């Protein structure tokens, strides 16, 4: 049935597209300017758009609604096809960066460059592909992970722990970074140990006679578990195992261990691998388990940047280790993933608010008065409260995510360059890494949680249609929530980052310690003069000037930190305040996000917003974010005397209620500004034209063809009809269990 | 690899079962007594246990971990098999109730009883089967729904809207209530209308010449949508359609419309049906869409209890309607589902807290000091804060759920008995129904939300293993969350119930209106003397005596209602306070739950807890629930001046922190008390013996046999190996695009 079949032209045919088109036409917002703001710079924006176009046009990479009907094995296969496709883009992207398409084959040169004559492959070389991968992961998260494990985890483990020669060999000469030659996985987690890496039990025992290591799984709980890529695609693995030399345990180190012959995909001797099977989401990833039984690798396969097993000419064995650097590298291994997850939070948040906003504008339900046209969902204040703050969340993540990403690359480059003999430079970069760890941990935890709630809340706001797989929320949520658990469980990350913040707070408060160069950006609220002022009651929280909306969080942080520190002082137990520590990490993230957004929008050179009206709406978004979370945390704001109860009733909540209807008028433009094409949303109730019902209906029809046994007739129809037509003869067949005459005869 | 393969007996083999066994052995709690409390009465408890045993032993009904690997079509088929199996239990259960297995075949008698000589089938006849269905739905929610749509929605629609004769014919003689003869679906929702039932657009136009109705779908948005059972299994439907007689629209009424021939499952003429396809969860339900094109049914198929189309001998047509009764029946149609969802909330909550608690006790991670044994997760205060309040939620739902269920059956029986001429009795029952609506709406919304959060929070608390499908959380969550949307969207239900509460508040406050008989149970906080006291400041919130822990919520409700009423007075807009209305509904539910639990535990005859120590722990659970939600809502508690900021810091939070470690010691016993057998949990990390790692590993191995192409070798291995071994010849194959010599030749 299509629109033309309507049998009565007087009937109420809902026409959602007209609302969306009307609101779009009425908006005066400069969505191009907003898009540049959200994509950080004009250069980055242009790259984003051109990559999105390529992905959505690519016959293998593009993703349609049939995606939501794939079984686990189909997902595995389709993902593998897409990886093979991406491997070609990878070569192309590196050639683009180095501007070398003619003359010689760059990839061949790089792979053959055993003597390091060319500049080695570096992060810059991968920058286009990284962005491509991040965008493709927005459409197909399991694809993103499956490649990300190889490049990000396997690759970064080698980069962080390998010597220069090892990095060059595995990643460049063997082709790993071109997705060639070998495919890697990252065997850290075990069945019995996830977060506590230091207690992993897999062993790498050095054999002096053969100058090799034996890799062994000592018992079931030491089975490598959840290893992405292990079940089917990895030929090699970086394995976290205890280094044991001459019966001494040197703790957990990393080793490159071949798993399969890349030509035949046969498992190598001693390697047992199985499939972890069905997961809540991301079934396209072949997570597996691995057990090792006397798997022998050369000594040289141990990643030896900071710890080396040395063999003297006389056969004497020694272990040389640099514990401080080793621990620094510990910081860096999982950082990349966390930084990327903050960027993912921006794009996933943006995607789902776009879908839900368009639906809320197009969908009508209930009339204000009998006989009137039914109201658009978005006109209900409750609906505005449910949806609009979620738009502000997506907006507020962007500047912080780009800033964190830039900070990550700068700091890591510095780390790779620093010489291990230059202790003071090393201390400096180690301090930077610690700050980066705090920021990335608190932003990762806070935003992956926020976006999980965002997807859930917005799915509910789309009612029943939100529960259909074809509208993206279901798989979207299932794929998303693992981000709260992997590469640092959110609770543990929050605790760890909060403990570091607390330590800084105590040092700043008691000893006036504050590093002007390193701490000003993220820890401005720890400036000793500010601290003192807040604690002495000299800083009153207000919500008048623009900067107040982030400063109020600085005040809140100090008061929360102060309350927490005093509690610990009293109870002597830091674990007892862990609920408060989680809050500290969250408040730190909210403050950073507001500040980064504020500073960018306030900057002449970096905001790219020249239109005054647009800028003013962008400030409303910022205020909404701050007010929404003050209201959500009004318990803490009152308890720690940041605001009086009456200020909540008479200032915070009224401001919040005033700002929502203002932003409501711009909601279509604000979500259009993300510039997601329909093929990236892959959710018919959220397509650009707003023709919600026809779009959704058409996708349902396309994906659910007539049953093979006839329309509406399931293949198991005989089962049903024989159930329904079972008659009274059931009792007869049992011998007439109920029949008195028979029972009487039987009783004779 | 099994335990016996451990290669080194000195290695740290984690041994979770010893912790669980130890804590179980140490507990002095009387779990039998607690179980009786939770299952309401000894009689109900015994029935529950015997039904659970039957279900878990039944070769068709039992559910194993392979359940989590089924594709959509497998789920559809398996569910149909289970329905056929349940249909036999149904007959058996009715015979059990009527105690008639011999002499004559009861089912045959009931179906042939066209002259109403026997007592008609009633709710009591179905009481065993209802419980059976509710329990089976805990193991396999989609099965529960698929049968529930037929019995609960199709059946109750006929019961609520049909004449006695229509009820007797469709449900008893045709066999529907025995799952025989016909299978029904419930065609209410349309693509364009869900919550706003009055605006449904499907039409039933009366044809005077043939004395029939034509059922028609006027346009795409009027397509019946989301109809459970429509895609594949329903032979008949109750259809919500506008009654149109002589061009006059009488609004939405209900009709029985045949869809398929029950013998062949062919669709009938004019009926178009399709599959809605993939959903976020519950794919075993065959939700479908239906379009009608001139589908003709006899006039007598209109359900005519309150509205009749009458045809006089002279052919004159009239419509007789009883609008008041019609609207009462409107209340009752979806009530059953809501009442059941509160009971589901108890059982689902209980299931997931059992799994997460056992995992938290068995799992170790990180040692307090180097060299010490790693701590059990449950020993971390943060973990206690994440898990223990969730146990209290499951506990607190139970008494309220049973009370609501009993109240529902009493009131409905009264409604069905009352004569439509007895206006005063009718007013009375209508008042009871309204109260029941408020309670069921606020309890349904609050508890389905709470349990959605509970599942999510507890999945996260199980880390990575919580993300595995085999540990129940993934599908459990996906199956669960639709409860927040269907049969009354939670937001809309909350708003509607809160508006009614607000109306009662205003009437009690301004006119002293309070119905001692009807309102005392659920609306005790609206007693005018209490209201006055609270508003005048004569009632101070305290947390000392046992009853304070629910009374504090009564005070909170009055203050919240008062604040809301004043805001509306000021702004004249009720929509503006909808965020507060949602809170009113939630506070009402929390108060009812605490009060029901308090009254039961406090009762000599109804608590069944005779052991003092056990009772005292049960009171701690109750306090924990109250404290946890006061702390969660500390914003409102301070804003509405129920507590001062310092009371939160010095009383509420310290009490909360003190109670958690106390309850921690009993957590295994408290969850054992739910008495869920392993086969009902269907989650190996939560099995009774606590052998977490072996159990989980074994299920993974069982469900993921070696790949058909060889161990660890995917069927698509050639795709991967050809990707990896692509060499430099790629460029050659393109004609040597990079080769200067060739390009030079081409340039000549």
TrEMBL record, chains A, B:
Q: Supply one GO BP term.
A: fatty acid beta-oxidation using acyl-CoA oxidase
Q: Which residues bind FAD?
A: 189, 228
Q: Where is it found, in Gene Ontology cellular component terms? A: peroxisome
For the keyword Transmembrane, the answer is no
Output the PANTHER family linked to this UniProt entry: ACYL-COENZYME A OXIDASE-LIKE PROTEIN, ELECTRON TRANSPORT OXIDOREDUCTASE
Compartments, as annotated in UniProt: Peroxisome
Q: In which pathway does it act?
A: Lipid metabolism; peroxisomal fatty acid beta-oxidation
**Taxonomic lineage:** Eukaryota, Fungi, Dikarya, Ascomycota, Saccharomycotina
Q: Where is the Acyl-CoA oxidase/dehydrogenase middle domain?
A: 185-295
Q: Which reaction does it catalyse?
A: a 2,3-saturated acyl-CoA + O2 = a (2E)-enoyl-CoA + H2O2
A GO term, aspect molecular function = FAD binding
> What keywords are assigned to this protein?
FAD, Fatty acid metabolism, Flavoprotein, Lipid metabolism, Oxidoreductase, Peroxisome
One matching Pfam family, short form? Acyl-CoA_dh_M
Q: What cofactor does this chain's UniProt record say it requires?
A: FAD
The entry sums up its family as follows: Belongs to the acyl-CoA oxidase family.
Question: Can you name this protein?
Answer: Acyl-coenzyme A oxidase
Q: Which positions fall inside the Acyl-coenzyme A oxidase N-terminal domain?
A: 32-172
Q: Which organism is it from?
A: Zygotorulaspora mrakii
Domain Acyl-CoA oxidase C-alpha1, chain residue ranges per copy: 331-501
Instruction: Name the InterPro entries for this protein.
Output: ACOX_C_alpha1, Acyl-CoA_ox_N, Acyl-CoA_Oxase/DH_mid-dom, Acyl-CoA_Oxase/DH_mid-dom_sf, Acyl-CoA_oxidase, Acyl-CoA_oxidase_C, AcylCo_DH-like_C, AcylCoA_DH/ox_N_sf
Gene3D superfamilies per the UniProt record, alphabetical: Acyl-CoA dehydrogenase/oxidase, N-terminal domain (1.10.540.10), Butyryl-CoA Dehydrogenase, subunit A, domain 2 (2.40.110.10), Butyryl-CoA Dehydrogenase, subunit A, domain 3 (1.20.140.10)
């Amino acid at each position: 049935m299509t629109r033309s079949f309507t049998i009565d032209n007087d009937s109420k045919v809902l026409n959602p597209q007209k609302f969306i088109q009307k609101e779009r036409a009425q908006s005066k917002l400069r969505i191009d300017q907003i898009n540049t703001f959200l994509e950080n710079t004009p250069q980055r924006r242009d790259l984003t758009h051109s990559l999105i176009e390529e992905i959505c046009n690519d016959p293998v990479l593009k993703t349609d609604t049939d995606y939501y009907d794939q079984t686990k094995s189909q997902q595995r296969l389709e993902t593998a096809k897409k990886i093979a496709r991406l491997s070609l883009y990878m070569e192309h992207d590196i050639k683009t960066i180095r501007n070398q398409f003619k003359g010689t084959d760059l990839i061949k040169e790089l792979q053959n460059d055993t003597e390091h004559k060319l500049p080695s492959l570096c992060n810059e070389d991968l920058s286009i592909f990284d962005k491509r991968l991040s965008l493709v992961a927005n459409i197909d998260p399991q694809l993103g992970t499956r490649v990300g494990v190889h490049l990000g985890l396997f690759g970064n483990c080698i980069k962080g722990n390998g010597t220069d020669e090892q990095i060059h060999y595995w990643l460049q000469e063997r082709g790993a970074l071109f997705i060639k030659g070998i495919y890697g996985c990252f065997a850290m987690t075990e069945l019995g140990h996830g977060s506590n890496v230091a207690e992993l039990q897999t062993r790498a025992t050095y054999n002096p006679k053969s100058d090799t290591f034996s890799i062994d799984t000592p018992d079931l709980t030491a089975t490598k578990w959840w290893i992405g890529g292990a079940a089917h695609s990895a030929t090699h693995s970086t394995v976290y195992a205890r280094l044991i030399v001459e019966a001494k345990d040197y703790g957990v180190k990393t080793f490159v261990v071949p798993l399969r012959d890349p030509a035949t995909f046969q498992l190598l001797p001693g390697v047992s691998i199985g499939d972890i099977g069905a997961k809540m989401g991301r079934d396209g990833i072949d997570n597996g388990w691995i057990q090792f039984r006397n798997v022998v690798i050369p000594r040289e396969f141990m990643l030896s940047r900071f710890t080396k097993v040395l063999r003297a000419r006389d056969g004497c064995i020694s272990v040389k280790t640099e514990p401080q650097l080793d621990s620094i590298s510990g910081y860096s291994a999982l950082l990349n993933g966390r930084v990327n997850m903050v960027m993912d939070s921006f794009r996933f948040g943006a995607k789902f608010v776009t879908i839900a906003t368009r639906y809320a504008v197009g969908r009508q339900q209930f009339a204000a008065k009998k006989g009137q046209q039914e109201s658009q969902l978005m006109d209900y204040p409750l609906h505005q409260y449910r949806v609009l703050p979620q738009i502000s969340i997506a907006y507020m993540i962007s500047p912080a995510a780009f800033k964190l990403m830039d900070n990550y690359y700068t700091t890591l480059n510095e780390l790779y360059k620093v010489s291990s003999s230059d202790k003071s430079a090393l201390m400096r970069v180690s301090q930077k890494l610690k700050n980066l760890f705090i920021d990335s941990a608190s932003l990762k935890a806070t935003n992956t949680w926020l976006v999980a709630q965002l997807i859930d809340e917005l799915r509910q706001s789309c009612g029943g249609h939100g529960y259909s797989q074809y509208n993206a929320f279901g798989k979207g949520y299932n794929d998303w929530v693992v981000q709260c658990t992997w590469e640092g469980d959110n609770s543990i990350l929050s605790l760890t980052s909060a403990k570091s913040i607390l330590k800084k707070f105590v040092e700043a408060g008691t000893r006036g310690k504050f590093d002007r160069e390193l701490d000003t950006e993220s820890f401005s609220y720890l400036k000793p003069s500010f601290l003192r002022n807040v604690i002495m009651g000299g800083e009153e929280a207000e919500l008048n000037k623009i900067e107040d909306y982030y400063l109020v969080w600085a005040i809140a942080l100090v008061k929360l930190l102060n309350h927490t520190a005093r509690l610990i002082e009293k109870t002597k137990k830091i674990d007892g305040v862990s609920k408060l520590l989680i809050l500290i990490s969250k408040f730190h993230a909210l403050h950073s996000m507001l500040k980064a957004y504020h500073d960018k929008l306030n900057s002449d050179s970096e905001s790219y917003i020249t239109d005054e009206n647009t800028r003013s709406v962008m400030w409303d978004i910022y205020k909404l974010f701050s007010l929404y979370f003050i209201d959500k945390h009004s318990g803490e704001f009152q308890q720690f005397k940041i605001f009086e109860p009456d200020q909540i009733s008479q200032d915070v909540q009224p401001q919040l209620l005033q700002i929502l209807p203002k932003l409501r008028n711009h909601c279509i433009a604000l979500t259009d500004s993300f510039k997601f094409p329909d093929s990236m949303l892959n959710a018919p109730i959220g397509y650009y034209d707003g023709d919600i019902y026809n779009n959704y209906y058409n996708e349902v029809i396309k994906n659910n063809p007539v049953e093979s046994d006839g329309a509406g007739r399931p293949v198991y129809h005989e089962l049903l009809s024989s159930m329904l037509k079972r008659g009274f003869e059931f009792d007869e067949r049992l011998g007439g269990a109920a029949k008195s005459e028979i029972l009487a005869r039987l009783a004779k």
